[in-house]
Amino acid sequence: MKKRILFIGFLLGIFSISNAQDAVYKIEFISNWSSTTHPNDYPSGSAHWSPLIGTTHKDAGAFLELGSIATDGIEEVAETGGTTKITQEINTLISAGMAYEIINGSDLDSGPGTITVNDVGVDSDFPNISLLTMIAPSPDWIASISNLKLTDASDNWIPSISVDVYATDAGTDSGSTYTSNNSDTDPRVAIRSLQNVAPFSDQIIGTFTFTLQQVLAVSNSILENSFSIYPNPSNGTITIKNSSTVLVESAEVYTSNGRKINAYNKLTDQRNIELYRLPVGLYFLKINSNKGSVMKKVVVQ
Length: 301
What we know:
By secondary structure, the chain is mostly beta strands. The protein has helices spanning 72-80, 84-95, 221-226, and strands at residues 2-6, 22-31, 48-49, 53-57, 99-104, 113-122, 128-136, 141-149, 160-165, 168-169, 192-193, 206-216, 227-230, 237-242, 248-255, 260-265, 270-274, 281-289, 292-300. The longest helix is centred in the first third of the chain and has 12 residues, at 84-95. The radius of gyration is 22 Å and the shape is elongated.
């Protein structure tokens, strides 16, 4: 796998921010799979990609690594494009505190093309990302990225990362052509690269790109510990609780890509905020006080 890490100079110092912040990324999978780059038995007329799915996670929550054994969820994606089982597996990681949230992208109804996922909220405690999408039709072949860290050696969010990937065999089916009959591999074998393995060539199958859209700063530890919000996740109403002598002045709600959508002025130390009209998703509540501001993540479900 070849990595190309591009640092964008005009972004100035806005992204030289420590891992005390969360951020928003745009994710793209740019497919290089075509009859030109992979001419051997290319399935013209039926080539497509399944929905992209994955998560951000801690190191110990990594999966999809070459040499590892596929889970039931990876098998389902690799063989059918389905995401039910892997969604359950990611939710288990989230419940265990090992992953942040599920990342869902669209499918692609052609071989070459681009899958784009905008406004992906990432948490500084879960800086690694893993994603996959099925090469379809195929026995169990995927394009994937595993355990890529979105922060640099100083724990700053990296402005832009581009990673070339080769086709990967999930090790769950023994078919050797795009339209092979189902032939379960039992027991499963290790996930492996298909670079230069028929029907693939020495060309990449695609490129994953990650572009930092916004860093959502939080304040110092005193302010961070002064305010709490509950319940979170919320069905529409949250309460700001102030456990300090800092005076709450106002609050603002932002989408995950940094767009302000509501403001609440003249707040008291404990105040309900109504979010019930908002679509399900991740939001950020900026609490303004006489000592500064602090940003809190809010999940509306």
